[in-house]
Amino acid sequence: MRPCFVGNLTCLKILSIGSGISLQYLQLDSCTALEDLEIKCCEQLVALEGMQSLGTLRSLVLHKNSILKSLQLYSCTSLERLEIDWCSSLVALEGLRSLVSLKHVVLFRSAALDSLATLESFEQIEGIPSHSYELFFPALESLKIDDLSLLNTSFCKGLICLRSLKLTFLNATKLIDEQERALLLLGSLQELCFVDCDDLVDLPAGLRGLPCLKALKIIGCISISGLPKEGLPLSLEELMIFRCSAELSKQCRLLATNKLEVEIDGDFVD
Fold first, then answer.
1. CA geometry: angle at 203 spanning 200 and 204, to 5°?
2. What are phi and psi of 155, to 5 degrees?
3. Which one-letter DSSP state was computed for residue 38?
4. 204, 256, 214: which is closest to 236 by C-alpha?
5. Cα 107–83–25 angle (5° rounding)?
6. Matching InterPro entries, A to Z (predicted)?
7. φ/ψ (deg, to 5) at 5
């Protein structure tokens, strides 16, 4: 099925498509003013056509589109939010280097994360200042992922504006040395969250080296039994523990001060 839109779509700014539609191809050529595109639970969606017309797109959300394989993002230079989750066949995000305005990224249960992890050399694209290419995503403020492959030095050194990092459903028991080093490159990081990482045994040993970290949240990480031996950043203001081990909760409870607010299973420590 190819959708047949009636009327002039050059003024359309928001397009949301939900489940129950037998959509295989979505033609976007005429949507030249589109700012917000959301496609959820279109299990038969094969391709998005006309992405080259979406120069004004600011938000792209794709959820449970299981056979969509690729995206052409070369023209999406205004994109600020990219959310892709449960799109198991989406292996190719082409034109990632063009996303110099990107501020918020969620990549969850999707092979698309590999496209970011393997970013390599590139050629300058017309209309984008050359200095923007010195960094991968110079405006990125928040990142939520379920795989540690993005925690490498070549990627993280360019995230000069990253404020929030959320790591969910990790399969690893700990961060390897390169991932630890990459994490410490995130000098602007203010919030770090570990969510439902059942296998994670150890928190990053060098957490104390994050100079701007204000909030550390550990949720549903049942295998973590303690905090790093070197301690936590002096800048920390909020420590939240929820559904974690008794050992971790006990250790964190002792850290509450006037400066550091500690919350355990929904209750604040006096």
1. 125
2. -80, -50
3. E
4. 214
5. 110
6. LRR_dom_sf
7. -85, 140
58-74 per-position pLDDT tens digit: 999 999 999 999 999 99
User: Which pair of tokens denotes residue 127?
Assistant: 């209309």
DSSP letter for each residue of 176-192: -HHHHHHHTT-TT--EE
Q: Please tell me the total number of residues recorded for the chain in this structure.
A: 270
Is 220 buried (19+), middle (13-18) or exposed (0-12) by CB count in 10 A? middle
CB 53 within 8 A of CB 30: yes
- Phi/psi for 250 (5° steps) reads -65, -45
Distance in angstroms (rounded) separating the CA atoms of residues 232 and 228: 7
Which tokens go with 41? 């639970």
Say if residue 260's pLDDT is above 60: yes
Across 8-33, b (16+ Cβ under 10 Å) vs e yields ebeebeebebeeebebeebbbeebee
Q: pTM of the predicted model, to two decimals? A: 0.89
Sorted by sequence, the CB contacts under 8 Å of residue 258 that are 6+ apart come out as none
Query: 78, exposed or middle or buried, with CB in 10 Å at 0-12, 13-18, 19+?
Result: middle
- CA-to-CA distance for 208 and 230, rounded, in angstroms? 7
**Rounded to whole angstroms, how far apart are CA atoms 184 and 204?**
10
Instruction: Tell me how far apart the alpha carbons of residues 270 and 255 are, in angstroms, rounded to a whole number.
Output: 10
